[in-house]
Amino acid sequence: MTTHRIGVLGGDGIGPEVTAEGVKILRRAAELFGFGLDLVDYPFGADHCVKTKELIPDSAFSEIRQLDAVLLGAIGDPRFETGFLEFGIVGRLRFDLDLYVNLRPIKLYAEHLCPLKGKKPEHLDIVVVRENTEDAYRSKPRFENKGTPDEVAAQEMIYTRKGTERIIRYAYELAAARPRKKLTLVDKANAVRAHDLYRRVFDEVGREYPQVQKDNAFVDACCMWMVRNPEGFDTIVTTNMFGDIITDLGAVLQGGLGIAAGGNIHPGQVSVFEPIHGSAPKYKGQNKANPIAAILAGAMMLDHLGERDAAARIEQVVSDLLASGRIPSLQAGAMRTSEIGDLVAREAAAARSVGANP
Ligand code: IPM
Ligand code: MN
């Protein structure tokens, strides 16, 4: 029996409670599909930082490097300056583990969840491949004449050839494996001329993938098309910052941040899976937050670990519960956090006994 070693980092706000439901479903999947789980809990986040002054100590970081994957809840707390915990924990994991792919599927499971008129599940099935290690995220901000009328602030967007090539190659491989085989490069090469690097690498690497249909969109137009004609997109590859922005738009098209999950991936190495939503401190500890995004992050993690059937089962169960209205809404408080987890766990087992998803 394969045993997967998983780090569980619940984090801040609603993070721990939604992550607990994610773990509940992982345990159920392990029973049903016959694999082992070795779970290692990490307390890192705002409270831990207040108590100990540390974010992720180096000893824990070395241990995390040896794991198979990490399930992350949410990081962020109003007691700290914006970005401090986010960069110290999420950023550190992404950058120091070199998790260069941020994989964010945008999929409509139930028509009533979509804010767009007349769009059905077949109209929204996109995967965004967001570069996850470069761009303005990696540059130090610079302030000159701070606080004076002559202040200048700058933060460079830096792209390397290697960083660009590996993300574009990953996206081509993914696009080639999907039924529609279409890849759209989203950039802003008409204004950020540095994005010419993305254009050139997209064309060069694209020659190795004649079976993939290629397209380009500027990021502003991409936002318009995602709302007007989302069925025109299949796989998207884009820079770190634009990927951040368009995946929030994508999340709302599939029903809101309560459902959108993502993976921070380095193929073949420890990778980190997380709901896209934040820590929503106002709902902390109330058993109101929707854990679907954390549950789907767990499913993505299983898929990454090679437990494809288990991952597909969880996604199918969530999809059925949403489409049938048994989970009627993604709004916080519509159902209790733990109740949603229990329902998914029960249905996952039931689906097996009637022989669905063989
Ligand atoms: C995300 C978040 C982060 C990002 C923040 C918290 C730094 O918005 O994962 O999308 O910008 O990448
Ligand atoms: Mn974001």
Name the poorly predicted regions. none
Overall number of structural domains: 2
Alpha-carbon distance between the two ends: 20 Å
Q: SSE string, helix = H, strand = E?
A: EHEHHEHEEEEHEHEHEHEEHHH
DSSP strand content: 15-25%
Enumerate the strands of the largest sheet in spatial order, edge to edge or round the barrel.
2-1-3-12-11-4-5-10-8-9
Mean pLDDT, nearest integer?
A: 96
Helix/sheet category: alpha/beta
CATH superfamily heading of the largest domain: Isopropylmalate Dehydrogenase
Bound ions, cofactors and other small molecules, one mention each: 3-isopropylmalic acid, manganese (II) ion
Helicity level = 40-55%
Rg from Cα: 20 Å
Q: Which fold name corresponds to the CATH topology of the largest domain?
A: Isopropylmalate Dehydrogenase
How many helical stretches?
Answer: 11
Quickly give the CATH architecture of the largest domain. 3-Layer(aba) Sandwich
Give the CA-based shape: globular
Largest sheet: 10 strands, mixed
CATH C-level of the largest domain: Alpha Beta
Q: Could you give the count of β-strands? A: 12
Oligomer: single chain
